[in-house]
């Protein structure tokens, strides 16, 4: 069984899954006898009981779909408030991807669909539901396209929770997690190409915001000025989320020039070590 993280909240919040959670909790509160269903336990999670060849499972194909309106409502988990984005356009983020498997198979996701660990889906704390993203493993260069239909993960540094199939195709099942780049895809648009981290590159931090939309506006401005690649990295501390807009990696020889250009645009940048 792969090494898994424990203590993560239930998925399926907010929306239909949240209602289901409240109903189950109410039932359990009045039923202490044997046979009462328990919530999912990450310590028991794992891959399918029988080996599955995921190489034949196709990536998700972006298409226009109506948004889950209840899934756009702000919600709070462990004292941290999450404000879902109204649009996924331009979203990019680097961080750690994790995955979830058979313990959640068949349970409702945030928009009321049934979680299928062999489908190319994923959970994200703030992207619209449904939306589509390309996830690139920065360790091995593999990439997949998945459809966001659930909420999570809710641990610091985690940017996306993948289905078993998506995690297996990326090669991160055995480790339980791995470094990734998440890039939003617009239906009908040109798919974002897979990206690798630049060896020896540096990053310029252009701002840190408590508001996710403010960070995305700055990131969109950088892209409009042809300043790429841009990521919005989410860090959580003391019950608050901080959205850091970073440009890079860029060649060290270009860092000073880019810093000057950003300053001319009224965007002071901090060179990260």
* Number of continuous helical runs: 4
Number of strands: 12
Approximately how much beta-strand content do the residues carry? 25-35%
Q: Span from first to last CA?
A: 37 Å
The stretches of 5 or more residues where confidence is low (pLDDT under 50) are 1-10, 13-40
State the secondary-structure class: alpha+beta
Outline the biggest β-sheet. Answer: 6 strands, mixed, barrel
The value of Rg in angstroms is 19 Å
Strand and helix order: HEEEEEEEHEEHEEHE
How would you describe the overall organization of this protein?
With 273 residues, the chain is α+β, with helices and mostly antiparallel strands. The chain has helices at 16-29, 164-170, 212-224, 252-264; strands at residues 75-77, 80-82, 92-100, 121-123, 131-137, 143-150, 158-163, 177-185, 202-209, 230-237, 240-250, 270-271. Strand 5 (131-137) and strand 6 (143-150) form a beta hairpin.
Brief overview:
The chain is of the alpha+beta class and 273 residues long.
Question: What keyword list fits this structure?
Answer:
six-stranded mixed beta barrel, 273 residues, 4 helices, globular, alpha+beta, four-stranded antiparallel β-sheet
Topology:
Blueprint: H1 16-29, E1 75-77, E2 80-82, E3 92-100, E4 121-123, E5 131-137, E6 143-150, E7 158-163, H2 164-170, E8 177-185, E9 202-209, H3 212-224, E10 230-237, E11 240-250, H4 252-264, E12 270-271
Parallel strand pairs: 3-7, 4-6
Antiparallel strand pairs: 1-2, 3-8, 4-7, 5-6, 5-8, 9-11, 9-12, 10-11
